[in-house]
Design goal:
This protein folds into 3 domains: about 5-55, Uridine Diphospho-n-acetylenolpyruvylglucosamine Reductase, domain 2; about 65-175, Uridine Diphospho-n-acetylenolpyruvylglucosamine Reductase, domain 3, CATH 3.30.465.10; about 180-285, Enolase-like, domain 1 (2-Layer Sandwich). The chain has a 5-stranded antiparallel sheet with strand order 4-5-10-6-7. It has a 4-stranded antiparallel sheet with strand order 11-12-13-14, with helices on both faces. It has a 3-stranded parallel sheet with strand order 1-3-2, covered by helices on one side. The chain contains 11 helices and 14 strands. It is an alpha+beta fold. It has helices at about 15-25, 35-40, 80-85, 85-90, 95-100, 105-110, 110-115, 125-130, 230-235, 240-255, 265-285; strands at about 5-10, 30, 50-55, 65, 70-75, 135-140, 145-150, 155, 160, 165-175, 180-185, 195-205, 210-220, 225.
Length: about 290
């Protein structure tokens, strides 16, 4: 399929991009890699009249550690996060997810900001960011604001980025104590959307007790989903096999999958249960390795 006709701009500053958004209004869409938006345009699921490409705007691609926070620029490519030694030393979940996103061509051009701003529950990064308890930085003509990841996704392909605004960065807190993270998804073939996916981060104190848990689920709910009951089951425990089993059962019960060509609802719930168990075990192992 070929997209409907559209105009194209490639601003060289954020101010210019914001001015274009203000001038064009809701007929404009931000292009931040394009590997989510362009396929939708080819299928005529999205028909923006104007694309504003951020590729030429400097200062939006970086991975920096600032105190107890890792900050990632919105135009950072998936491959850069996957291959960053600094990032993966703290959060190996990025290497996990990087290997599973589509294919190398997509990862070489797709961006973390674009992945999140698309608001697709089938994308992998939303579950990762929920597990990591990330915050999203958004800029508009009125200034910059920060939105917690739990308030960022609120509807089908809908996010907290409002008309005239641009997602500029992701901020990830570095936990106190020992911590580990992991992500995996089940897919029909390499590069496919997930049948179901699970991202986990666990934090432990010096006694080996879990003080904080983050669990995000991929493609088993209309919006990216936090497995809250599963998290609560882990906190305050040493994450024994019995506790892991309970947390996994909660995740399978609390997700809301739809039957499709990737499987029926029961099958997807079983996938989530298995993956939740495995990722909790892996995150715990990494925390103490």
């Amino acid at each position: 399929m070929i997209p409907s006709s559209f105009d194209y701009s490639a601003p060289t500053t954020l101010e210019e991009a914001l001015n274009l958004l203000e001038e064009i209004g809701d007929e404009a869409k931000i292009l931040a890699g394009g590997h989510s938006l362009i396929p939708m345009m080819k299928l005529r699921f999205a028909e923006p009249e104007h694309l504003i490409d951020l590729s030429n705007v400097p200062g939006l691609s970086y991975i920096n550690t600032e105190g107890n926070t890792v900050k990632i620029g919105a135009m950072t490519r998936e491959v850069d996060a996957e291959e960053s030694e600094e990032l993966n030393k703290l959060f190996p979940i990025f290497k996990d997810v990087g290997k599973l996103i589509a294919d190398p061509q997509v990862r070489n051009f797709g961006t973390l900001g674009g992945n999140l701003a698309h608001g697709d529950a089938a994308n992998d990064q939303p579950a990762v960011m929920m597990a990591l308890n990330a915050e999203i930085e958004i800029i508009g003509k009125e200034g910059t604001r920060t939105v917690g990841i739990d308030d960022f996704f609120f509807g089908f392909y809908a996010t907290a980025v409002e008309e005239g605004e641009i997602l500029t960065a992701i901020k990830i807190p570095i936990p106190d104590g020992k911590f580990g993270s992991a992500y995996h998804k089940s897919e029909r073939k390499v590069g496919d959307y997930a049948t179901g996916g699970v991202g986990v981060q666990l934090t432990f104190d010096s006694s080996g007790t879990c003080t904080k848990a983050g669990i995000g689920l991929t493609n088993v709910n209309p919006t990216p989903l936090r497995a809250s009951r599963s998290e609560e089951a882990l906190v305050g425990t040493t994450v024994t096999d019995e506790v892991i089993e309970q947390a996994a059962q909660f995740a399978s019960e609390d997700c809301n999958p739809s039957a499709d060509l990737r499987g029926d609802e029961d099958y997807k719930r079983r996938i989530i249960k298995v993956l939740t168990k495995r990722m909790i075990v892996k995150a715990k192992e990494r925390a103490f390795s």
